[in-house]
């Protein structure tokens, strides 16, 4: 037992990752076993999701109440959304560049590729298409305002929760001294929930083992072989985006992207293994705060980014769309690719909270530019593995965003960040 206790959490996660790959390879194709392994991962994700909303609400309402200036909050929001639009657009553009450069779909025979089942994504896409106002983006904007805040809390919809939290925080600031008991309660609740997060994270290795094992059992490493070029294109594009694009933004802020990666190494490993950004949201918020980003910015930018700044997903969607076009020998002109870029940009914002969002976004987008949506059935086998990669990019992209917004506001504490880095 003493030996086990000496093994730190990151090492435990790596061991779980390796063991999961080995066991998954041994049990590949034996899908009956999944029903006994998957629940361990699902329990962990449910525990994290249970605590995400209380953390977002308490931290954001408390931070906004301390800022208390509607002009300042409006400036945060305006800068954040502008930054998200620019970065997401650039991610889609970079995906198209790499898709055209490497041409991952050229030379492949669609009839020889393993075909997955996209029926569940098609039903989700059809449901999502039934928008109230005929436009997903308008729907998203309208639905930011919850008709029932308790329903929004219960369903875990972050945008309505963020809206109510900001409004509630401004109300606390407006009533002055009368708000002190409420602020004390929120502060105490936040500390208690972070304690709970610490205990839940001890289960991370078990969850990692469960998710990796079930992924390999379902799809197998052999799925990577016929689609190796697609996977390689996505990996190279994402590495370029991390080290060049996010690297430049980080440098502008006075930090290195490698420092941010060192800071978030445990979180990135967990995000990769679970393919879930929510699994690391609470810990990333806390780390960004310790890294020198004020709580009011970190607690606003990070949760908002989960709906509006999914750089990894955006890049993957543009590469996958070109892959399908190339697979069927369809040549997309520059104008058609610009239309594809704009469509992806708008559609992705309207479906950020939809399960299997990347595939659903592609299903609704491909038809609009004359491509066969059924081509997506050919990449289902590697989608889970690529989802793990794009989740890491999403987490890094939103973390860099918090530092950038704090820097532009002149409130980023670089010295505190350097001291925190030395301590880990």
UniProtKB/TrEMBL annotation:
<dbReference type="Pfam" id="PF00375">
    <property type="entry name" value="SDF"/>
</dbReference>
<feature type="transmembrane region" description="Helical">
    <location>
        <begin position="227"/>
        <end position="248"/>
    </location>
</feature>
<dbReference type="GO" id="GO:0005886">
    <property type="term" value="C:plasma membrane"/>
</dbReference>
<dbReference type="InterPro" id="IPR001991">
    <property type="entry name" value="Na-dicarboxylate_symporter"/>
</dbReference>
<dbReference type="GO" id="GO:0006835">
    <property type="term" value="P:dicarboxylic acid transport"/>
</dbReference>
<feature type="transmembrane region" description="Helical">
    <location>
        <begin position="197"/>
        <end position="221"/>
    </location>
</feature>
<feature type="transmembrane region" description="Helical">
    <location>
        <begin position="359"/>
        <end position="382"/>
    </location>
</feature>
<dbReference type="GO" id="GO:0015293">
    <property type="term" value="F:symporter activity"/>
</dbReference>
<feature type="transmembrane region" description="Helical">
    <location>
        <begin position="319"/>
        <end position="347"/>
    </location>
</feature>
<feature type="transmembrane region" description="Helical">
    <location>
        <begin position="47"/>
        <end position="68"/>
    </location>
</feature>
<keyword id="KW-1133">Transmembrane helix</keyword>
<protein>
    <submittedName>
        <fullName>Proton sodium-glutamate symport protein</fullName>
    </submittedName>
</protein>
<keyword id="KW-0812">Transmembrane</keyword>
<keyword id="KW-1003">Cell membrane</keyword>
<keyword id="KW-0472">Membrane</keyword>
<feature type="transmembrane region" description="Helical">
    <location>
        <begin position="158"/>
        <end position="176"/>
    </location>
</feature>
<keyword id="KW-0769">Symport</keyword>
<keyword id="KW-0813">Transport</keyword>
<feature type="transmembrane region" description="Helical">
    <location>
        <begin position="80"/>
        <end position="102"/>
    </location>
</feature>
<dbReference type="InterPro" id="IPR036458">
    <property type="entry name" value="Na:dicarbo_symporter_sf"/>
</dbReference>
<dbReference type="InterPro" id="IPR018107">
    <property type="entry name" value="Na-dicarboxylate_symporter_CS"/>
</dbReference>
<feature type="transmembrane region" description="Helical">
    <location>
        <begin position="7"/>
        <end position="27"/>
    </location>
</feature>
